[in-house]
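Action item from last meeting closed. Structure (411 res):
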């Protein structure tokens, strides 16, 4: 019987998580049978009956199909499948193994969302500080945060990185981060770089009002975090997908146990392999939004809808929502929009995303014709003009930094 594994969502309550899939394949003759097979493959069942697979086991540990919604004018459907929480430990690698393990190896299967009940959310780490904690730390409440990506990103020593950080901070940058390509090379050791940057920030009185997210990506992640903190780091950064969900989650759990509250910046390096296909992988909002938030990213990088990285406007908005909407006990995270951001893009991005975001620029600050300090000032000037309802062209008449930026990038 096609619907023998179907149930109503009201039945599942807190004992299940719900995975939503988009299924699209002309090779599968019957969508209902395909969904049933996926539910079996990923829980207490397989493609054929095996010894020991009793009705009682299937009832207690088998996944339940709670919705199949055929799509008009295509051989596709949205499927919602509930997986018993009893089947896995509350640990992101096992959650993903359950809902995205073998199934994502099939052509035409895309994981759209995972809905987690409160008992599961309560056992996941979530951000250490979240939006409210970071705003309180920086004393910035009424606008997006200004972010800067240190440039040049590779091939330079700690002194040049520190000088660049100080210049951006002097212009009003609230958050400065390493590039994802810069972690611990011989020419810029992580410990030396973070201590040098923090010294430069302290020298200009910005070590308490500007975060420097030093990239600690590497082996022995927990030890590296402590090394960075001992060297004066007030924020740390990880390439969460490249490191692995488990390593990053272990780090956040460890910091929570130790009572260490430090903002963590999550870079999505490598996640494009998951979200760029429209019929395979997983949604952008899940890959760059909900999942990194659940494992503890206070700030999560998201590319803008400029076309350079293949994210649509809808995907950007959905990812912003996945990071900042209420989710039980899990704190809200900043989405950090980076990639082609400059003063001329600020009104559009603020109109689209509101104020609970970090608008971060690399070239848009360090490529400013008047230098990095002017670059950060120009972005801050654009934010204030937008909030005041003043057109950027008008505001530029009063601010030479903004004027230079608009003439340079908005010809």
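Sequence:
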């Amino acid at each position: 019987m096609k619907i023998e594994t179907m149930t109503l969502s009201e039945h599942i309550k807190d004992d299940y998580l719900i995975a939503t899939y988009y299924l699209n394949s002309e090779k599968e003759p019957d969508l209902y049978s395909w969904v049933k097979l996926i539910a079996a493959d990923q829980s207490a069942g397989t493609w054929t009956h095996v010894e020991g697979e009793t009705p009682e086991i299937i009832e207690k540990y088998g996944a339940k199909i709670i919705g199949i919604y055929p799509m008009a004018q295509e051989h596709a459907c949205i499927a919602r499948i509930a997986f018993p929480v009893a089947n896995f430990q509350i640990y992101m690698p096992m959650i993903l193994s359950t809902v995205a393990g073998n199934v994502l190896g099939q052509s035409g299967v895309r994981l759209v969302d995972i809905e987690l009940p409160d008992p599961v959310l309560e056992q996941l780490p979530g951000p250490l500080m979240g939006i409210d904690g970071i705003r309180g730390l920086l004393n910035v409440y009424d606008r997006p945060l200004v972010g800067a990506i240190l440039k040049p990103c590779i091939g330079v020593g700690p002194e040049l990185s520190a000088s660049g950080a100080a210049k951006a901070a002097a212009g009003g940058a609230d958050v400065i981060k390493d590039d994802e390509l810069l972690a611990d090379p011989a020419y810029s050791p992580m410990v030396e770089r973070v201590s040098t940057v923090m010294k430069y920030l302290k020298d200009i009185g910005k070590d308490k009002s500007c975060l420097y997210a030093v990239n600690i990506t590497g082996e022995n992640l927990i030890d590296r975090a402590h090394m960075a903190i001992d060297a004066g780091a007030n924020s740390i950064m990880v390439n969460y997908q490249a490191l692995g969900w488990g390593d990053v989650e272990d780090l956040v759990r460890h910091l929570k146990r130790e009572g260490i509250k430090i903002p963590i910046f999550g870079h999505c390096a490598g996640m494009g392999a998951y979200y760029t296909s429209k019929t395979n992988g997983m949604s952008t909002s899940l890959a760059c939004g909900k999942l990194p938030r659940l494992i503890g990213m206070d700030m999560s990088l998201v590319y803008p809808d400029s076309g350079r990285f293949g994210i649509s406007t809808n995907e950007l908005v959905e990812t912003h929502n996945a990071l900042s909407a209420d989710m039980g006990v899990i704190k809200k995270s900043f989405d950090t929009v980076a990639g082609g951001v400059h003063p001329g893009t600020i009104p559009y991005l603020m109109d689209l995303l509101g104020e609970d975001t970090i608008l971060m620029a690399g070239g848009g600050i360090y490529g400013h014709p008047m230098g990095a300090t002017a670059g950060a000032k120009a972005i801050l000037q654009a934010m204030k003009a937008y909030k005041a309802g003043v057109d950027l062209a008008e505001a530029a008449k009063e601010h030479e930094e903004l004027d230079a930026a608009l003439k340079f990038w908005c010809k």
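Note appended to the action item: DSSP finds 19 helices and 13 strands in the chain.
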